[in-house]
Amino acid sequence: MNFPMKLRARWGKLLERRRQGAAMHTILFTHPSCLEHDTGLGHPERIDRLRAVLAALEAEEFMLLDRREAPAATHEQLLRVHDAGYVDSVFARLPAHGHGALDGDTVVCAASGEAALRAAGAAVAAVDAVLGGEARNAFCAVRPPGHHAEPAQAMGFCLFNNVAVGAAHARTVHGLKRVAVIDFDVHHGNGTQAMFWDEPELMYCSTHQWPLYPGTGHAAETGVRGNIVNAPLPAFADGAAFRAAMEGTVLPALDAFAPELVMISAGFDAHARDPLAGLNLGEDDFAWATQALLDIARRHSGGRLVSVLEGGYDLQALARSTAAHVRELMAG
Predict the structure, then answer these.
(1) How far apart are CA 17 and CA 280, in angstroms?
(2) Are 321 and 271 in contact (CB under 8 A)?
(3) Among this protein's residues, is 43 annotated catalytic?
(4) What is the CATH number of the domain that holds 175?
(5) What is the extent of the structural domain holding 187?
(6) Among the options 37, 82, 148, 187, which is catalytic?
(7) Which has the closest alpha carbon to 265: 219, 218, 312, 297?
(8) What is the pLDDT of residues 108-158, one digit of tens each?
């Protein structure tokens, strides 16, 4: 096998772990329907984003990924975090032909409902697989993204809040008491924060550029019992500033919370190449953050971690950053 020398040792380690038991491997959840969500010409949240991610994960170093199709989320699963009227309205507003809009940024087509169900269903299936002992961790390569979606409102390219649906499933079906979501997308996850605000057994931690869309995420926003942790970064902040925010604010809060499951809203638009914001992170910063969060998972949740794709709008940066992230998940 013509395998790069610098990755050969890691690959051998992964093979050995795979031989030791199925619970050591990483599962990739995705679905072809997520490639049918057409947002129209010129929209940044476009089909090519997921194509770039999936192409990157076809590299030889990812041969041991357990690839599975995401199921569709059920109505019941969505209603744990979304209002029933809102869920019904999303499907009622899908156009039979062409494009429609749920807000000024969130464009939909006839296939968008199925894509959104599969994206949320991926998070649910990943939680089931990880908590059921089938894998140590999982990555959901899906779209539309989810962290801006509020209980009764679509926002920022997001229809349903995928990671929140997964977190609610972990509590309701698996009986977990403490679930943490860490969000390193460049945009603050206002939807996840809103859903977690009054839930002290759920923690939401976010690093993001501030001020920036959607305007939430000030450090003073802490939830009803300090379960919301925001570490905003100024425009042009680099990897050193990001790591300092993680080490000084986010990681200590997670250690104190001691989550039984770690979940990641994995947005890669804080990359220096991304056109929609102004932070200056690189692939090595995302790899470092993944390692740090895997350490948290090992200390508190038996290594159990679920990651769900959010933003990232430069195709090259998105592909490379996702590869760096999944590489660490497989090694962790």
Answers:
(1) 35
(2) yes
(3) no
(4) 3.40.800.20
(5) 27-331
(6) 148
(7) 312
(8) 999 999 999 999 999 999 999 999 999 999 999 999 999 999 999 999 999
